[in-house]
UniProtKB/TrEMBL annotation:
<dbReference type="Pfam" id="PF02392">
    <property type="entry name" value="Ycf4"/>
</dbReference>
<dbReference type="InterPro" id="IPR003359">
    <property type="entry name" value="PSI_Ycf4_assembly"/>
</dbReference>
<protein>
    <recommendedName>
        <fullName>Photosystem I assembly protein Ycf4</fullName>
    </recommendedName>
</protein>
<keyword id="KW-0602">Photosynthesis</keyword>
<dbReference type="GO" id="GO:0015979">
    <property type="term" value="P:photosynthesis"/>
</dbReference>
<dbReference type="GO" id="GO:0042651">
    <property type="term" value="C:thylakoid membrane"/>
</dbReference>
<comment type="function">
    <text>Seems to be required for the assembly of the photosystem I complex.</text>
</comment>
<keyword id="KW-0472">Membrane</keyword>
<keyword id="KW-0934">Plastid</keyword>
<feature type="transmembrane region" description="Helical">
    <location>
        <begin position="20"/>
        <end position="41"/>
    </location>
</feature>
<comment type="similarity">
    <text>Belongs to the Ycf4 family.</text>
</comment>
<keyword id="KW-0793">Thylakoid</keyword>
<keyword id="KW-1133">Transmembrane helix</keyword>
<feature type="transmembrane region" description="Helical">
    <location>
        <begin position="61"/>
        <end position="83"/>
    </location>
</feature>
<dbReference type="GO" id="GO:0009522">
    <property type="term" value="C:photosystem I"/>
</dbReference>
<keyword id="KW-0812">Transmembrane</keyword>
Length: 183
């Protein structure tokens, strides 16, 4: 593309993590649901183990409830994957002096998120790193009115060094300072 325009594509819900979570929730929920039905009808609906001897009240009802909830969550994840919620791109244009942030949302009247900021309103970029058992890195666009807009979703699988390199590249491209925050 043009060297005066930088475009970063954002992966939405169509990622390996979402697919795995959807399948795990569906099959675990189906197992719980069938175990609950087995306890109600006193027939074994699962080939793995005999669940017909489970007392329906309260264990069977709880199994049905959790199974229904897990299947419902897997259906919700299926729809977010189908609609690719959260996907889009960030476009940094030196020719227009604009930053455009576009994301897909749920279907309906406001299904697309479109944000546009002029370069003159940018204060700096902020590289935020949270350390601990689950370290996360995020790059924020900090505006002069103190708003902080995340440029990349937190669930993007980039190492802290990759995220830092991307933040440095963006700050050089936009010619704005980069602030490092480590928590």
């Amino acid at each position: 593309m043009n060297e005066s325009i930088l475009r970063e594509n954002i992966v939405g819900a169509r990622n390996l993590r979402s697919f795995l979570l959807m399948f795990i929730l569906f099959f675990a929920g189906l197992g719980f649901f069938l175990a609950g039905l087995s306890s109600y009808f006193h027939q074994n609906f699962l080939q793995i183990t005999d669940t017909s001897e489970i007392i329906f009240f309260p264990q069977g009802i709880a199994l049905l409830f959790y199974g229904t909830g897990a299947i419902g969550l897997s259906f919700y994840l299926f729809l977010t994957i189908l609609w690719d919620i959260g996907s889009g791109y960030n476009e940094f244009s030196k020719t227009d002096n604009l930053i455009r942030i576009i994301r897909l949302g749920f279907p309906g009247k406001n299904s697309r998120l479109f944000l546009s900021y002029e370069f003159k309103n940018i204060k700096n970029l902020k590289f935020l790193m949270k350390q601990g058992l689950n370290p996360r890195c995020t790059i924020f666009l900090v505006l002069k009115d103190k708003r902080e807009i995340p440029l990349f979703p937190a669930q993007m699988f980039m190492s802290p060094s990759q995220t830092e390199k991307k933040a440095i590249q963006l700050s050089r491209f936009l010619n704005v300072p980069l602030e490092n925050v480590i928590l």
